[in-house]
Each structure stands twice: as structure tokens, then as C-alpha cells.
Amino acid sequence: MHQTRDMRLVTIDDVRAAAARIRGNVVRTPLLPAAWGGDAERPLWVKPESLQPIGAFKVRGAFNAIAAATAGPAAPTDVVAYSSGNHAQAVAYAAAAYGLRAHIVMPEETPEVKVAATRDHGARVVLCGAGQRESVAAQIVAETGGTLIPPFDHRDVIAGQGTIGLEIAEDLPSVRTVLVPVSGGGLASGTGVAIRALCPRAEVFGVEPELAADTAEGLRRGHRADWSVADRNRTIADGLRSQPSELTFAHLQQVLDGIITVSEDEIRSAVREFAYRAHLVSEPSGAVALAALRRGGTPPGETVVILSGGNIEPVMLRQILAE
């Protein structure tokens, strides 16, 4: 993976180009009015990315990156990815659509529902120990000559995720606040780029678990903070255990108005609220934006929470709903 890094920030033109590339392969998710969750001061809307074919927003970035990689004369026959789950499924799904072989590296602690779903899309899954994803993926790239599709550290991936912000801006030009989960930062980076460009009066807040709040610390300090894998793995939100890359952190510094951290109890409560009030299934990682809204302190006005994914182990969902 010793490749020249493209550190240019993504632009709204990049996001628009991504929207055109992926239009036939992803769901343009609705912006759902949530009368159950807002009030006169803060009308609430939910962007349910759990309705995507693989149950999460990651399909947008995967399709954009693979579409871009296959557009030239040196189109790959193999793609490689490393992921705790949703990006894995997304790359496997997109690779199958393009007739490519997918090799996906996943940590051993990945929920079985995500491992099985990735294999169901025809991918070869390689399990690895904690903190070894990138090195194992590098070995597979060397063995196969495949193209690496990283989960967030790639301009095409960021631009693809940014199509969520583009759709929010088109559907709700009056939006005042957007709450978006933060892990590696691709979703928040791309969404923030689109909202900044199209809805300059709106504020964008990242949300992460208190037990994996490396981005919050990094933004306070002005440089990336390094939390151990063991520390980040404490959170129930398994999709939010990654840390921003140099590229995504540079975006987050530009596009976020702030970051909100939420507790494990608040995350579980938000999963229940989505299920009982919105009739939507959310994984813990997907529920943090609603948890942040419930914590309070966001500006008045039209508010959008991004439900980023719904791939949750059935046993865990039953346990949370029974609490």
C-alpha cells in the first residue's frame, strides 16, 4: 500500500460527480419527518441509511470508488478492503455488481451478522487480530495485484459518502443542524463538504461515543489523537472504533462546527427510540446522532439526524429493546 497519497480536500463538484456515478446502484434514501422526536423549536428529520441494499451508508463510497477505479484502461480484476463490517459488505456488494473478485479483511471480533453478510455477497473474508487489518490487507494487495478500497481514507470514498449531504440539501434547503456519526471520518467529511457548500447557514456536528472519543480530543488539540485499539473497542458502537486519517481529519477541521460525545446508555436508548418510535432498526453506531440530539444543546431550527446503519446482531437488539 505504498502509494502516492492524494491529500486534496473533496469539493462539492466531486460529490456531484459521485452522485452521477452511483445513481443507478444505491437508494436515494428519503428524509423522513419525525414528529415523534422533534418539537416546534427543533423539527426533526431522519436520514435512514439503514435502507440501503447492505443496510448502511457505506455502499455509496464503495460504489463511487469502484466505479472510478474501473473507468480507466487499467481496470482491476480484484479489489481489497479492510473493515469492521459495513464497508466490507459495501465493497463486496459493489464488486459483485462490477464482476470483480473481492478480498475483505475483517477483525475477529466483528459481529457474525456482518461477516456472514459479506460472504453472502461472494467475497473472500480473511479474519485477523485486533489492529492488524491494514497490514493483512497490504499482504493481499501484494498477492493479488488488487486495488485497495479503504473504508474512509480515500477521496472517492469521501465523495461518495458526501452524496448523503447533497440529498439532505436538496430535500431540506432550510436545514439548520445536521448530526452525523464520526469514526474514520469519511461520512462526516463528505456530508460536511456538501452541507457547507449548499446550506452555508447550517451547522454540522459530529457525534462519537465517549469511549472512542479520539476525534473530539484531536479537534480540541488541533491534531489527531491516538487512542489504543483496546480503549476504542470498549464501545458497543463497533462501527465507530476507527480513528480519522490525516485526510479525513483535515476535512473534519474544515467542515465540523463541533463534536458531541455520547454515553453507552444514551446510545442504547437511541436504538430503542428508533425501534419503538420510528419503527426503524438501528445498530448502535447508527443511533449516536439521535443520542446527541437527546443530550441537548443543538441550535434551534430544522434538524437532521443521520441513521448511518442498521446491521445489528439480533441477540443484541433483543437485549437492548428489553432494557
From TrEMBL:
<feature type="domain" description="Tryptophan synthase beta chain-like PALP">
    <location>
        <begin position="24"/>
        <end position="308"/>
    </location>
</feature>
<keyword id="KW-0456">Lyase</keyword>
<dbReference type="Pfam" id="PF00291">
    <property type="entry name" value="PALP"/>
</dbReference>
<dbReference type="InterPro" id="IPR036052">
    <property type="entry name" value="TrpB-like_PALP_sf"/>
</dbReference>
<comment type="similarity">
    <text>Belongs to the serine/threonine dehydratase family.</text>
</comment>
<dbReference type="InterPro" id="IPR001926">
    <property type="entry name" value="TrpB-like_PALP"/>
</dbReference>
<dbReference type="GO" id="GO:0006565">
    <property type="term" value="P:L-serine catabolic process"/>
</dbReference>
<dbReference type="GO" id="GO:0006567">
    <property type="term" value="P:L-threonine catabolic process"/>
</dbReference>
<keyword id="KW-0663">Pyridoxal phosphate</keyword>
<dbReference type="GO" id="GO:0004794">
    <property type="term" value="F:threonine deaminase activity"/>
</dbReference>
<comment type="function">
    <text>Catalyzes the anaerobic formation of alpha-ketobutyrate and ammonia from threonine in a two-step reaction. The first step involved a dehydration of threonine and a production of enamine intermediates (aminocrotonate), which tautomerizes to its imine form (iminobutyrate). Both intermediates are unstable and short-lived. The second step is the nonenzymatic hydrolysis of the enamine/imine intermediates to form 2-ketobutyrate and free ammonia. In the low water environment of the cell, the second step is accelerated by RidA.</text>
</comment>
<dbReference type="InterPro" id="IPR050147">
    <property type="entry name" value="Ser/Thr_Dehydratase"/>
</dbReference>
<protein>
    <recommendedName>
        <fullName>threonine ammonia-lyase</fullName>
        <ecNumber>4.3.1.19</ecNumber>
    </recommendedName>
</protein>
<dbReference type="GO" id="GO:0009097">
    <property type="term" value="P:isoleucine biosynthetic process"/>
</dbReference>
<dbReference type="GO" id="GO:0003941">
    <property type="term" value="F:L-serine ammonia-lyase activity"/>
</dbReference>
